[in-house]
Amino acid sequence: MQHMIFDAHLHIIDPAFPLVSNDGFLPDAFTVDDYVGQTAALGVGGGAVVSGSFQSFDQSYLITALAALGPTFVGVTQLPYSVSDEDLLLLASHGVRAVRFNLRRGGSESSAYLCEFAHRVYDLLGWHIEIYADCKSLTDLAGKLCKLPAISIDHLGLSKEGLPLLYQLAESGAKVKATGFGRVDFAVSQAIKRLFEINPDALMFGTDLPSTRSPRAFNPVDIEIIGNALGDVAAKKVLWDNAAAFYRLGV
Q1: pTM of the full predicted structure?
Q2: Which of 75, 72, 143 lies closest to 114, judged by CA?
Q3: Staple partner for 175: which of 42, 52, 152, 228, CB 3.0–4.6 Å?
Q4: Which CATH number is associated with domain 5-246?
């Protein structure tokens, strides 16, 4: 059975807007038209456009992409802690719902501000914080992360070594993105089963398109992996319900 999908993690890369080289790397273009064409057969009914390290604090590409994709798509951006409340409110009016901390590749605010920023945007706007990091590197932050009002972890936490902490975070209420299966070093289906057992509301599927710098790009079989691991009813939660609720679709 094909479920409608909320794609909780996608990137739009439009060279018409500023791009910042990251360790000498600039990604290939992946426009809104490219995304819509590549996902036409998947049943995508909404999603979250996520800012990459190469977009740093630029908001122009994101606002344009969200306007083109329509009201069922929201934004996850990178911002300096010094951003004004007025600018946060303006971004919210364009559909932005979260701030990303890219601790793996940079381009975002320092982790030193993570907890303060998490409380600030949640209290002001109901936003959450998204973290791109190898979970094994988050041990020192674990106690603080478990107490934050709303967070999600990208790409299943990336490493087998980080899974115990990922499971701890999911138990405390963190969301986990079932994305980037080609980026991890463990059996995805087993981790998905365990995460769903710990917290049925935690997992959110995303394509991770265009899978920049991933050893293996997204393939529609990744959706089948979720269905085969969890069954039809649980898969619906992972493919749509959990993310649509977390990103406050329609709010």
Answers
A1: 0.95
A2: 143
A3: 152
A4: 3.20.20.140
